[in-house]
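A quick aside before the break. I want you to see a complete sequence-to-structure record at least once, exactly as it would be stored in a machine-readable document. Don't worry about memorizing anything.
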Amino acid sequence: MQNLSTLVTGLEYKSRQVADKMKELHRSFDELQSKYLQLEEKYEQQKQTINNLDQKIQILKITNAIPKGKETADVKKKINELLRELDRCIDLLNNRNDITHGG
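That is the input. The structure line, written in tokens, reads:
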């Protein structure tokens, strides 16, 4: 009878140890899950920051590609020259079309 009592007491002790360990593991799991969610949120924020910085880089590249000061006036002048030349070509093509179509 003493052996049975000792055996039951030992089983009760072991079951309390298992239950305590289970609680500890649940707490650890909850902590890890919380940290994971925080890290995931931080990752998404950093990803958004990277996207914003990439957009700013693209804007800066475009902005730096646009000439400043005197160069701007030269570019505008060149664009106007090219537009006038295009207009002359269109006129020539229109006149040629009128001639060939009996206009």
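Two observations worth writing down. The chain has two helices and no strands. The chain has two domains: 1-66, 68-103. We'll return to this after the break.
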